[in-house]
Amino acid sequence: MLPTRHLGKPAPETWFGLVDGIYAIVLTIVVLSYPQLILDAINKARVHEIAYDMLGRLLLSHTMSFFGVFLTGFEIWSIHRALLSLTIPARRKTVLSAIVLSIMAFAPVWVDVNNHLRQEYLIARDQLLETDAMVFRLVFFVLLLIVFATLAWLAWLEMVQYPDQRQDLAQVRAVCLHRCWLLAAVYVFSLLVPHRGALYIFMVAMFSYFGRDLWLFLRSRFVR
User: Fold this and answer.
1) What pLDDT digit, counting tens, does each position of 185-217 carry?
2) Between helices 12-47 and 107-124, what is the axis angle to 10°?
3) Coil, helix or strand at residue 162
4) Nearest CA to 50 among 30, 143, 59?
5) Cβ neighbours of residue 149 under 8 Å, at least 6 residues apart?
6) Alpha-carbon distance 51 to 91, whole Å?
7) Of 170, 146, 18, 179, which is closest to residue 86 (Cα–Cα)?
8) Entry pTM
9) What digits encode the pLDDT tens for the residues 123-169?
10) Planar angle of CA 209, 114, 82, nearest 5 degrees
């Protein structure tokens, strides 16, 4: 890494531009990969003479995958940006942010491979493809776990350095830790209830955004 005297002291605006740009590119690539994936599903359905219900399952799986990946990526961006806005750029933050950004920059590759493996398995019902899909799903969940754990660690480090921002940073850290537990719980659920689709990443996104509302609703209905 170049010394600060060569580049000047990094300003928060510099980080904002870099983070916004990387996440925008990542989400754009993810979005652009789905039309071709859907066209491939339709073409393979014609070649293999797949019934319409199977084609419907494929399209539903891709739809859930799209919303799950997009909403999860959007949440990671919002958490990352919140952390950068609450503190001042420093070397420690640079290293941890670089780890998160490097994983997120590689996300479209894993998403695309996982989608194709899932699609090929649903069409061919090959046991080897199912194993590959399960391995890639595990890697995908582990990468997300590393991202949220790194953001939680970054929030904890900044809480020590910036006591005046402790309350806001504690809230961000609590969200990141909640997502870590959520990822672990959903992955265990995926082992117990093998759906072989995009249900799990969709569950992560839905529980992340609406889990608290669902919990409050259930508690109001069943807990007196």
Assistant:
1) 998 988 887 765 677 888 888 888 877 666 665
2) 20
3) coil
4) 59
5) 176, 180
6) 56
7) 170
8) 0.82
9) 766 666 667 777 878 888 899 999 999 999 988 888 877 777 788 88
10) 35
